[in-house]
Structure formats: C-alpha cells, structure tokens
Amino acid sequence: MSSNPQFLFDFGSPNAFLSHEAIPAIEKRTGTKFEYVPVLLGGIFKATNNKSPAETLAGVKNKREFHAIETERFVKRFGVKPYTWNPFFPVNTLNLMRAAVAAQMEGVFEKYVEAAFHHMWVEPKKMDDPEVAAKALASSGLDAGKLLARSQDADVKAKLIENTQAAVERGAFGSPTFFVGKEMFFGKEQLREVEEMVVGK
Question: 1 in a domain, yes or no?
Fold first, then answer.
C-alpha cells in the first residue's frame, strides 16, 4: 500500500477539480506527494447504488445553497480559483479516464491530468465528444491521437476497472476520495483532515 496520501479522482467531478487545485500547496506545506489514482465515477456509483450531487440535491430545499456556501469557503481557505460550470454536464468520462491510465503508461500523466481538468472546469468543453477531446488535448501539447488510441487497449481498460473495483472494496462511494494509509476521507472539505493526518497531528 502506498505510504503517500492517495487521491482517487474522476475528471467529471468539479469537487475533484477543486481538490486538484488545492493539493500542490498541501504538498508544499507537508513535504509529501499525493498519488493520483484514476477511477471511473460512473462505475463507483453503479457498484454502490450512489448518485451524483446534481441528482441527490435536486428538489431539496436549502441543501444546494449550502453546498454553494461550502464551496465558497473551500475556495477562500485554499486560495484556489473556482471552477467554471461545464454546460455539457454530466460528461461521460469513460474515455477520458481510460486515457488517464494510458497517460500513466506513456509517462505523461501529470501533464494529461492538468490538461483534462483544464478542459473540463477552466475552459469547459464537451469532453465526451472524441473530436472535441482530441483537439483540446492536442492544444495542451499532448499527443492526443496516441493517448486516445492507447486508451482503447485491453490492458488500459483492465487497469481502470481494477482501480475502480479496488476503490469500492476499500470503501469509496464517490469522488474525490482520499486515503492516508487505510484511513479514508471523502469530499474536498476533508482535505484539512487529510493534511493533519499526513503531518501526524
């Protein structure tokens, strides 16, 4: 098991994006490096009978408003920029997440993660359209054709399934999920607890 804190993420989650934005400062303060683990949120939802906040908050008085306040607090606390809502939400992230695994195998993972989050939540695009995704990733200096082709290989597909199943077995039910050793934390708000545990408070 990794001794580094793990960040289980899917590009389809705006809260995973905000966590990604906050992590570099935490790494700097703690001297530790987060291990990014690509998972398929749709697969986790299916396995745990969970639904996205967009569905669970629908029609619940005051809850959505509170989530907005909570996000404002997070943005201020961690000094990150808020996301730009993706007008194409929900975006099917299957191929994007497979390509993340491909990027790991091709040695361009960090650059790919930055690009994919950017095109989902900074300059949002319909990233489940293969042509749109290819153009966006290429504009970020990636060999989009190579990564998207590699994303269809059996070993890549199997690895994403393995990551997703392992996440569920460890207790995950959504994204962002963090692990520090065997301790699980869910949601961007728990990054404070993650940091405290990393520094051993």
Answer: no
